[in-house]
Description:
The complex is a heterodimer of chains A (about 230) and B (about 375). With about 230 residues, chain A is of the alpha/beta class. Chain A has helices spanning about 45-55, 75-85, 105-110, 120-130, 145-160, 175-190, 205; strands at about 5-15, 20-30, 35-40, 60-65, 70, 90, 165-170, 195-200, 215-220, 220-225.
Amino acid sequence: MMMLELKNIRKVFNQGKSYELVAVDGVSVSLEARKVTVLKGPSGSGKTTLLSLAGCMARPTSGRIFLGDRELSSLPERFLTEIRRTHFGFIFQQFNLIKGISALENVMLPAYPLGGTHIALKKHAEELLELFGIGRRASSKAEWLSGGEAQRTAIARALVNDPAVIIADEPTAQLDTKLSREFMDIVSRLKEQQKTIIIASHDPLVYEASMIDRVISMRDGKIEEVES
Amino acid sequence: MHTWIEKQRNIIDFTLSSLSRRKGKNIALLLVYTLLVFLLASVMFFTYALKREAALTLRDAPEIVVQRMAQGRHEPIPRKYLEVLKKIKGVNSVRGRLWGYYFDSVIGANYTIMAPEDFPYAEGDITIGSGVSRARLVDQDDTIPLHTYDGTSIPFHVREVFSSESELVSSDLLLVSEADYRKLFGTSKDLFTDITLKVRNAKEISTVAEKIVMLLPDTRPITKREILRTYESIFDWRSGIMVAILTGAVLAFIIVSWDKASGLSVDEKKEIGILKAVGWEISDILLMKFWEGAVISLSSFLTGILLAYVHVFFTPAILFKPVLKGWSVLYPEFRLVPFIDPYQIATLFFLTVVPYTVATIVPSWHAAIIDPDSVMRS
């Protein structure tokens, strides 16, 4: 399992324009494998941007990102997509399930371009939904799922390609306390499965949870404090 | 290879479920598209089949028809010209023809009347086209009176009604004996309507025609190729009118398809963002959009072609009959022989399926090159 290392990362939006925004400003951090790391901070602190940079969703304006000894920041788009598909699983704040198709199809989506057989893929997706206790909702359309069910579906989707790193952006923002605790239980199970987990959150239920290995506090695009 | 096929299958599966999600929009698009292909293909099938029918009809026609001209108009040709024409080298056979038009004041229609050399019946007998039979309510063994040039009436015994197979050319046709023809129009025995020539070698036709003009300066030779060309230009002109009318439909379709196919909704753009975020490459998204366009355009294309085929060849082509077939008062009622020209199908394919598919892919490409992290900010 490889370590994710960010060196002197800077991300500027709308560079050179009057409304230029420095979202991440000279951040260097190592995110250890098989650990749960939380990026904590208020809105606009740069944690979501840092998360998307770590997950190869965007490129830094300057600085370098390494997955093990492989530099990711200089890779062309195609390879970056390949890395994203095979190494990372994403859980978004709004869950971002595709409406109109079933929960099962949503889970299968990231695996479609890999070219596995449809039957095997379907079986795997069903097992994942079953694992998170929503097997009976497999054929329900995404828009008919409750908040908790939608999030579990999103987690199953993040895991379908068996990635080493799970990235979650404000995963409890749409959930009540009970569902938030259930989510943290799932995180705990994923940690037991040796997954590296990086979460951006300003919810104490998340960053104060017992299974968290490291909390990185951010403010104004910079790292303020690192607690282990 | 196996992986590649599975990937295509998976993406097609997703495309199909995507299409069913936007049922209303896609069904509307499918209907408009099918209608357009149906109309265009109908015109194409129809004109092509008519041209082919005309070509088949003219297959056994004489290589050259010689008409006498007087004051710029077609006049009866003297019998003695037959001897002059027979002497031209390369001419196989020379025959005088008797044909003209008979105006039927009862129904206000013009019939084509001919006296074939090998008319199998006797004087007083007549064979009629099915159009005449329908219009005058006469059938085999009935009597049909025709007026002569001097106002007297001759009762003709109908011996035969032409079958509908040959109705394109025989709908308004009357066949009588030579003697009856001359009696009806008061044509002298020394005159024919025109003269037909068979030429042994097709390459000599133009030379023979030149010789005719030299030997008989008051005549006009018309070659088979010229007749065929005239038929074709008539049908082209008629189909041209239809195509001009259809241009409006084509434009409307382009606007609708551009709007429906290219104008990606906010939801569709977000969906592309999600697919990119979960690991789809730009090429995967374009592949999906390609299949989406291909499913709609191919199914519309095939349905439209099939409907047009049935419309033109198995129904009386009700939509176009007046424009494309009607050059006579008596409309022929006939079924065209089914025939499809692959070149025409290919043309129609490239004019409809290809532009639509491109119109679907280009805007998707614009949407697909956005950074996937945009979905994290939405």
